[in-house]
Specification:
Length: 398
């Protein structure tokens, strides 16, 4: 790739609390310092913009906004433009009150259109909650057309809080659809959205169909978008999570999106590159990835143990591996040996959303009657691709 000419940070869902000791403020401070430190070590040393894509204040209260403003501005360097959007959590104190505070505290209007190093940044907040009404739709249409008329061959960076439905991971339960008929006219759009708290290192966090979409993660905790896990959509280690994106534009127009883990201070090894021409025929991060995906595999000698306690048990096993991608989750099936009947199924994520994944995964099984059983564990990727082998063990409930 040719030399970088533009770099910016995108984060969302910071969820700053009224308490100045909240972990989110510490993560905001650490994350901003890390972004500048990274840029300082590059040939192109600028952070040209920082975008906060909604839900930076947990309840929309003024003290939360002031706490965010204090840490944000203490780290902000001269020459970095800022774009801070509001969304469902800021609206918790009322929509007119939120807009007034943003103007008074940050000198920012609800809608924003900036031009940074010749590239257009357009931000559209929801009318209420995550709904984009007629005024928001009209604003998006007119501002996108301005950006297109300025240079139809350049990427346009578009920011909204909630995902577009059926795009990135997290959009199944946390998406909106009102802007689709407008955005689909501009394949050069690179859309950034949050709201779901879904992991940005998930391979499904980039999606291309009519245009390109990325999720922006969270600095507070993660929630995922599958509904078969024994603990629901929020894993027990959800708070060990703080991520954002660093975006770099090269002189040839290519856009690289890097996923950064604030907890460990590391980039996830999953850079995504969007190259011109920005046309659907040139898109590579499409749903066709499902067809070409490799299957996970348990290496020889992967441990599996069953700890029995009365009628309950815990199944613990080592992680599977997968070519180029981590493993998404695991499904354990418990079968009664006497008749081959399935008595229990339970599933859990691998912990892939953490830079340092746990070495083992434990799945609980409850209330089994007396008998002899076999448990079988399969690993699953992100594209309905199950492992080509399974771990198995026999155990007895007395």
């Amino acid at each position: 790739m040719s030399d970088t000419i533009l770099r910016f940070v995108v984060m969302s869902d910071v969820h700053v609390k009224e308490n100045k000791d909240c972990i989110e403020l510490a993560r905001l401070d650490k994350g901003m310092k890390a972004a500048y430190a990274y840029a300082d070590g590059c040939d192109y040393q600028g952070i040209d913009a920082i975008v906060v894509d909604g839900d930076f204040a947990n309840g929309g209260r003024e003290q939360e906004m002031l706490n965010f403003k204090e840490v944000f501005e203490a780290n902000l360097r001269p020459g970095t433009k800022t774009l801070i959007s509001v969304a469902s959590h800021e609206y918790g104190s009322g929509i007119p009150e939120t807009h007034e505070r943003m103007k008074r505290l940050f000198d920012m209007d609800p809608h924003m259109h900036l031009v940074v190093k010749g590239y257009h940044f357009i931000s559209v907040p929801p009318e209420k909650g995550t709904y984009y009404g007629k005024a928001q739709q009209e604003y998006a249409f007119h501002e996108l057309q301005k950006a297109f008329d300025d240079d139809p061959d350049k990427a346009i960076f578009f920011f909204q809080h909630a995902h577009i439905n059926s795009t990135v991971y997290g959009s199944y339960d946390w998406g909106e659809k009102e802007l689709v008929p407008i955005l689909m006219n501009y394949p050069q759009i690179i859309d950034f959205s949050g709201h779901s708290h879904a992991p940005i290192n998930d391979p499904r966090n980039v999606h291309q169909k009519y245009f390109t979409c990325f999720g922006t993660g969270s600095l507070s905790y993660t929630e995922l978008d599958e509904f078969d896990k024994y603990y629901g959509t929020v894993p027990p280690d959800c708070a060990e999570f703080a991520q954002y994106l660093i975006v770099e534009v090269a002189s040839d127009g290519a856009v690289t999106v890097k996923s950064y883990d604030i907890i460990t201070g590391q980039f996830f090894p999953c850079d995504r590159v969007i190259r011109p021409p920005f046309t659907p025929d040139n898109f590579v991060y499409t749903d066709k990835r499902r067809v070409k995906s490799a299957r996970p595999h348990f290496p020889e000698g992967t441990p599996l143990s069953v700890a029995v306690n009365g009628g309950d048990c815990e199944i613990t096993f080592g992680q599977a591996v997968c070519e180029e991608e981590p493993v998404n989750d695991y499904l354990a099936t418990v079968t009664r040996n006497a008749d081959g009947k399935i008595l229990r199924r339970t599933a859990a994520w691998s912990g892939y959303y953490r830079y340092n994944m746990p070495e083992t995964v434990t799945l609980p099984v409850k209330a089994l009657p007396k008998g002899d059983y076999t448990v079988s564990v399969v690993a699953r990727g992100f594209w309905d691709n199950e492992s080509d082998n399974a771990l198995q063990a026999r155990f007895t409930i007395e």
